[in-house]
Amino acid sequence: MTAATLEVTRPRRRPLGSAPLWLAAALLAAVSTVLSDRLPAWAVEYPRAWRLPIEPWISAAMKWLINDATFGLFTFQEFTRSISWLFNWLLEAAYGLLAQGFTFGKGEDALHIPHVSWIALIVVLVFFARRVGGRGLALFVAFCFLYLAVFGQWSSAMVTLASIVISVPFGVLAGLLVGIAAYRNAWVEKAVTPLLDLMQTVPVFAYLVPILFLFGFGPVAAMIATMIYAAPPMVRLTVLALRGVPEEIKEYGRMAGCSRHQHMWKVLVPAAKSGLLVGLNQVVMLSLNMVIIASMIGAGGLGFDVLHALRRLAIGEGLEAGIAITLLAIALDRLSQAAATRPPPAHGSVRDGSWLARNRLAVGALVLLLVSMAAGALVPAIAAYPEPWTVTTGKFWDEVVAWLNINLFDTITIVKTWLLVNLMLPVKEFMLALPWPVLLGLLAFAGWRLGGWRLALLPVALGAFILLTGNWEKAMITVYLCGLSVVIAAAIGIPLGIWAAGNRRRTGGTLAVIDTLQTLPSFVYLIPVIMLFSVGDFSAMIAVVAFALAPAVRYTVHGLNQVPEHLVEAGRAQGCSRRQMLWKIRMPLALPEIMLGINQTIMMALSMLVITALVGTRDLGQEVFTALAKADTGKGIVAGLCVAFIAITADRLIQAWSRRRKAQLGVA
Amino acid sequence: MKNLIRTAVAAGALALAASAPAAAAAPESDEPIILTLHDWSGQYITTTIMGNVLKSMGYNVEYVQADYLAQFAGIETGDLTVAMELWDTTAAEALAASIATGNTIDLGETGMAAKEEWWYPIYMKELCPGLPDWQALNACAELFATPETGSKGRYLGGPVTWGGWDDERVEALNLDFEVIHAGTDAALFAELESAYQRKAPFLGWVYAPHWAPAKYEGEWVEFPPYSAECYNDPSVGLNPDMAYDCGKPSGLVRKAGWAGGEAVWPCAYQAIRAFRMDNATMGELVAEVDLEGVSVDDAVNAWMDANEATWQSWTACEG
Hints:
Structural class of chain B: alpha/beta
CATH superfamily of the largest domain in chain B: Periplasmic binding protein-like II
Strand order of the largest sheet of chain A: 1-2
CATH architecture of the domain at 408-436 and 468-665 in chain A: Orthogonal Bundle
CATH topology of the domain at 408-436 and 468-665 in chain A: MetI-like fold
CATH class of the largest domain in chain B: Alpha Beta
Strand content of chain B: 15-25%
Distance between the termini of chain A: 17 Å
Helix content of chain A: over 70%
Mean pLDDT of chain B: 84
Shape of chain A: globular
Radius of gyration of chain B: 23 Å
Order of helices and strands of chain B: HEHEHEHEHEHEHEHEHEHHHHH
Mean pLDDT of chain A: 82
Oligomer: heterodimer
Radius of gyration of chain A: 27 Å
Largest sheet of chain B: 5 strands, antiparallel
CATH class of the domain at 408-436 and 468-665 in chain A: Mainly Alpha
Low-confidence stretches of chain B: 1-24
Helix content of chain B: 40-55%
Strand content of chain A: under 5%
């Protein structure tokens, strides 16, 4: 035990090799920036003439795909359109059931069957929650759905719910199948991994235009975009979870003579359940994250309400709709988790009795829902929550923001101006003045020190793409904005995580706040932020920090809490003070986890770019946003790839650093 | 059981159909007419009125949320049928390009006229007495300055996608201003609201018909009047070397639709062509919805009840 502690406190090698080399590299960057006027012009600003016309190539390829690509019997577009026809059919059914009812015939003479009653739906969901998760869950679900009814969000929430109910199972299933294929074949995994990186880091707006062309306008296109964004974690977690199944269980499956199919579905998948459930959680959360963006291209529902309210600067109304999204996300997540982890019924007990007796609850629920639909036709209050009973706190929040604005604006402006002049503008100017060959050289050096020549080549290749497409300056503004935001998020998030990690109650409370911050659509707090901080980089930075804070806190808590008990024990035996325990033992050991948290913070910060484009930044996010508005496929995809490449560079370098560090500490 | 329900439904539908007023022309097709919705209330109102009128004629109507400029791709393929508000000021180029494909047709003007220009709250006039004349702007530039813009004044322009040539205008007219682009309409008006609450300086892009000119008291800056030559020909206007040395054009708000729809729903297309609304009426409706919190449906229903003769006249189908 002492040996282990010794190794922790006094690593044999100095970390990261030779410090003088790093120092020299940093100096070179600083000097080259100061002297950038004396350098040849091409080194400071990449010449326009050296650009490659990649954007038109992509646009042309897309045009070909949409107009001419064919499988022989049918064209590519006919293929995608038939997919959207299928989804549309499912979605219509879900809409009809939950939100709109069914209409036969046309115009004003049509026959209308109302949708499922709000009362019946709440009753059924609460019973279901009671059954799978106990009383606590039942109360929580009742609270969430009553909120939707009482605050007048019911009908919009049902539109959102309908699309989630269809898209999540498909996303999970697709993710699971791809994950299984990747687990079975190494080459599938090799092919899929970079694709997943792109799916998660290319901003959604970048591929919306081609999706609109291929799948048509409307809720289906929004749903497909949601799936592309939300499914990758499911794939990753499936592979991880299947790998994590203990060798003994696999062995047992083989000994029992399972076929390949049985081995997968009866042994591996059930054994990997807890990992797969995290995947489910991520799909649900990310799908609801997309609600706002999806509503911009035709999904309607709560996302549209948020947008519409904020367009009118009805901040309170926007907040109420935003909270509805958060509650829906958390309720769906807890329900699906509980349903999936419910212990299987004892063997034999289920098979007794007739089919009716076994499925009493399901049949009861179905009858209740159907009866309520019929009753809703006679009594409107049964079908839809009566409007006079709704409550709103909208005015109150509007007044809170107005009060803050009138009374605190001047103070806020002083702080803002100081930060702008002393921190943000200098960093921005530095990034823009930094000659591109120097930055690429630095990245290559870092890659080489951390992971050998392959890691040195990667940033150079990705950076070359950004240069060749002429997006360097915008990429530097992106790096400046996200970089600063990440530093600030880490400066707030890591201490907060340290504070929360000590104590179970604090951990629970902090994580609940963090969850809310992450599922609450950022647009909701963006508008008050603009009112208080005006349009500009500062507002963008606040929005990014608020969203990217979550992983910094979460991974710090996680890292500190999972430090091996025997090492903590050893520290105590050595007579370490509390302070020494934290800084000499727990923090160094948690550092790799914390760095992964920073990695995720960077990813979150980059994924917020598209949202900050809405407040008028001039970075790659804006480029993507403009391309969307002009339906320019090539431009959007190129700018989206540039964002992804920044993310991938940061990710690979940090991962390599974290791996080395872990190896040095012997906690790999 | 299933058959029973189906029969009952069919019988019910028949009974209802039979009781329908015989005067209404039978719609030519069950295919839904898909109207696009954008994210500002005025467009929402216009579209809902048109949708209700089409429903009263017996058509199936659907609404789809679509991006203002990206929607043309959908209209050309027939995924979307009709766009009710295309402003000459922001969509003229995209509309012309779309019509050139042959798959989109102009469905005429809406009767509303778009006005957009640099705008300031009325209290700024006391601090900068020369307004609304644009030549007073430079003397007051410091008034509008912020730490980010240095000594230059700050003008909050619309999202980059709105175009508007403000950067060029600043250069051509030699204004000591920096154009900051708000990313969205919401961001633009959030800042206006914030400034107005504090009676702080504000100069930004405001347009009508919109709720803002109704809610906030203010005026548009008067630039040299717009002409097509001023935009196209550098030699025209005050600055002999540069174009855009004048104000923004005001323009009509048009409707457009999928060309193929003409054959599917001829009467519906006639009704859409006949749709007319003026700025004053629209301003009232938008104010009701955005400022008084009346729902779009309620506001539209109230208007339709009060103006039945007006919209009934659009539905007459000849031919």
